[in-house]
Design a protein that fits this description.
By secondary structure, the protein is of the alpha/beta class. The chain is built from 8 helices and 6 strands, in the order ββαβαβαβαβαααα. It has one domain: Rossmann fold, CATH 3.40.50. A 6-stranded mixed beta sheet has the order 1-2-3-4-5-6. Helix 3 packs across helix 5 and helix 6 packs antiparallel against helix 7.
């Protein structure tokens, strides 16, 4: 683990060289970046949620890993480090950020919860899992507060 007061990086080195630079900027909340896969990642996310913004950058993405880490408290699950800055900005604006593989997991979790209030989140996630970009689909849906929707999903599971 490395970082300073507001930013920490968790995972096995070497980390993507530009990752720390993309995490900079003005932040009101502390941020944890988990480079996955990493031993103890579920516990690391769980102990930091909800006090920190948690971003997972998956080197070997898995829908199962995404489901577990999102359930634990991650509101951003990326498979491309080029999306890191946009994901961090989305979190600061109260929105989640999901790669297609994470969106597939969220779609399934939302359906398992059985709450009709999560149907829009499930629909967005299904479109993203089908290959549409998260920010475009989220904006087009008119749904805001996707981080709140994920928090509700966690409570229901």
């Amino acid at each position: 683990m490395t970082g300073h007061q507001r930013i920490e990086i968790i995972g096995t080195e070497p980390w993507p060289g530009h990752a720390a630079r993309q995490l900079g900027g003005r932040r009101t909340r502390r941020l944890s970046l988990l480079i996955a896969p990493a031993a103890g990642s579920f516990a690391a996310v769980r102990e930091r949620y909800p006090e920190r913004d948690i971003v997972v950058l998956a080197a070997e993405p898995s829908a199962i890993e995404a489901a577990l880490l999102i359930y634990a408290g991650a509101d951003a699950y990326l498979t491309d480090s080029g999306d890191l800055r946009s994901a961090v900005e989305s979190l600061a604006a109260g929105e989640a950020w999901l790669s297609p593989i994470a969106a597939a997991a969220v779609c399934r979790l939302a359906r398992l919860a059985g709450d009709p209030d999560l149907d829009r989140l499930a629909g967005i996630a299904r479109a993203v899992a089908g290959g549409h970009p998260w920010p475009t689909v989220r904006r087009a849906s008119g749904l805001s507060g996707t981080r709140s929707a994920l928090a509700r999903l966690r409570r229901l599971l």
